[in-house]
Amino acid sequence: MTKELEFLINVSKTARSLITEDLEVYQKGENDLVTNFDLMLEKYIISQIKENFPNFDIVSEEFNTNGKLSENCFVIDPIDGTINFANNYPLWAIQLACVKGGKTCAAVIYAPKLNELFYADENGAFLNDKKISVSSLQKEKTICAVEGGDKISRASEIIGSIPHIRSTGSSAISFAFTAAGRFGAHLFSKDSPWDFVPGIYICKMAGAKIIEKKNCHIAANSLEYAKFLENVSDKMNLN
Q1: Residue 44, SS3?
Q2: 179: closest CA among 146, 151, 210?
Q3: Long-range contacts of 56-65 (CB under 8 A, 24+ apart)
Q4: 3-class DSSP state for residue 60?
Q5: pLDDT more than 70, % of the chain
Q6: Residue 239: what pLDDT?
Q7: Which residue, 81, 83, 115, 166, could crosslink 170 as a Cys pair with Cβ 3.0–4.6 Å?
Q8: CA 88/CA 110 separation, integer angstroms
Q9: CB-based burial of residue 163 (10 Å sphere; 0-12 exposed, 13-18 middle, 19+ buried)?
Q10: pLDDT-derived band of residue 164, with 50, 70 and 90 as boundaries?
Q11: Which are the contacts of 37, defined by CB distance < 8 A and separation ≥ 6?
């Protein structure tokens, strides 16, 4: 395990311990929420990065939202799936990634309510210390996760040959489930790096085929499936 991954695992677990029953929920936007713990966890994680990796930049959702990755940086989403979290729905996660030399080298998706820690580095992708890989099923037999607001209903109209479409309400969870073979693929349609950088890397290290372009981030268990979803994305006018 690399030192970057060990750091991400430790800091995510400690961040989880900061969450108590004293939940406060605020309206962030018309269809979005933020909680006191989003802010608290992000401040803690940033402080640990500055202490342990002072020469790395930070790209995070609540405090540094320019969305620009640098050559050496950490990508932070303190609680991905905040609406789920605020409603005591267990599909949320702390997700972190380290970019070194312009390439992602370590990532963590920690889902405390599921007691599941997904992580990856150059040694592969793992769930609770067991190596994972993508599904071997044909796309028609798998679940396809689509995240991104109204994109779900639009995708349902287009993906006629894939009957099993789901939305977890958390891109981190959907990418993690794809890496673990629970979903066959995940199509994510936003460009905020804290939403997809950790998950894309974990999926890649689990053997997923990756396609990325503007407003389109796909991880699938086969290149055929990934290209199919890229075509779906084009028809949804996401690009």
Answers
A1: helix
A2: 210
A3: 56/98, 59/193, 59/194, 60/194, 61/192, 61/194, 62/34, 62/38, 65/192
A4: strand
A5: 89
A6: 45
A7: 81
A8: 16
A9: exposed
A10: confident
A11: 18, 19, 23, 78, 79, 85
208 and 188 in contact (C-beta within 8 Å)?
no
In this predicted model, what pLDDT tens digit does every residue of 54-109 receive, in sequence order? 999 999 876 665 678 999 999 999 999 989 999 999 999 999 999 999 999 999 99
Distance separating alpha carbons of residues 171 and 87, to the nearest angstrom: 17
- Pick from 229, 223, 230, 219: nearest CA to 181: 219
Q: Which residue type is seen at 189?
A: S
CA pair distance 183, 164, nearest whole angstrom = 10
Q: Which two tokens stand for residue 81?
A: 């799936």
Q: Count other C-beta atoms under 10 Å from residue 153's C-beta.
A: 11
C-alpha angle with apex 1: 111 to 47, nearest 5 degrees?
Answer: 60
Q: Which residue has the tokens 């979290």?
A: 85
Question: Under DSSP, is residue 69 helix (H, G, I), strand (E, B) or coil?
Answer: coil
What is the separation of C-alpha 87 from the centre of its chain, rounded to a whole number of angstroms? 20
239 CB-contact burial (10 Å; exposed 0-12 / middle 13-18 / buried 19+): exposed
164 or 31, which is more confident: 164
Please give the model's pTM, rounded to 2 decimal places. Answer: 0.92
Task: Count CA atoms closer than 13 A to 9's CA, side-chain side.
Answer: 17
CA torsion, points 13, 196, 84, 180, in degrees to nearest 10? -70
The values of phi and psi at residue 92, to 5°, are: -145, 165
Q: Which two tokens stand for residue 130?
A: 């067991």
Tokens 């969305």: give the residue.
Answer: 67
Residue in the block written with tokens 């998950």: 199
